[in-house]
């Protein structure tokens, strides 16, 4: 696994644990020599995870839609910044450049990116691991909603295999590597 796309908030949230987890994820990505691919912002959890990767001599690619400029504050210290026309092109570019995906706590944009990524996996567009860094049980309500959709017959249980969940960044990355190495066995 050479690169992981991280979806997360451009805000930090109200709990310190979110920022701590973002920074710890940045350290883990650097330790594992995994390049970070993300939305390019210098603010919120996005800024914290990217700054930590850079601080620990890692590589970071930021993908920024031109539509967000000048309101977005891009991180000026990235290894590489790619400007794209719109949000759809951003998601496609992040997916193309990544070997896996991790969602940290975030808002509507994080959910949109996460659900697109899960849907693409379900459709067979990619076979990359998708991880939820479940900081402070942030994703528990989402996981219950998905489970309810399965129970009510809207999602096939088979689709749940696409999500790897952990509260620990190191454990999540290890599980993603295991998933990646066995992905050819998954249909």
From TrEMBL:
Transmembrane segments: none annotated. The keyword Transport does not apply. The keyword DNA-binding does not apply. Its EC number is 3.2.2.n1. This is Cytokinin riboside 5'-monophosphate phosphoribohydrolase. Belongs to the LOG family. It is an enzyme of class 3 (hydrolase). The lineage of its organism: Bacteria, Bacillati, Bacillota, Clostridia, Eubacteriales. Keywords: Cytokinin biosynthesis, Hydrolase. Signal peptide: none annotated.
């Amino acid at each position: 696994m050479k690169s992981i796309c991280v979806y997360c908030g451009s805000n930090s949230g109200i709990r310190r644990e979110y920022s701590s987890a973002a920074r710890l994820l940045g350290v883990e990505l650097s330790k594992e020599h995994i390049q970070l691919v993300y939305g390019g912002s210098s603010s919120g959890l996005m800024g914290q995870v990217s700054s930590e990767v850079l601080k620990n001599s890692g590589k970071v690619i930021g993908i920024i839609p031109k539509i967000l400029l000048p309101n977005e504050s891009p991180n000026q210290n990235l290894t590489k910044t790619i400007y794209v026309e719109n949000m759809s092109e951003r998601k496609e570019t992040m997916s193309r450049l990544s070997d896996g995906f991790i969602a940290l706590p975030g808002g509507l944009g994080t959910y949109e990116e996460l659900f697109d990524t899960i849907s693409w996996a379900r459709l067979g567009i990619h076979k990359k691991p998708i991880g939820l860094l479940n900081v402070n049980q942030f994703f528990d309500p989402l996981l219950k909603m998905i489970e309810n959709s399965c129970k009510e017959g809207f999602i096939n249980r088979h689709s749940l295999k696409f999500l790897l969940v952990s509260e620990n960044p190191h454990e999540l990355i290890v599980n993603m590597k295991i998933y990646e190495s066995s992905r050819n066995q998954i249909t």
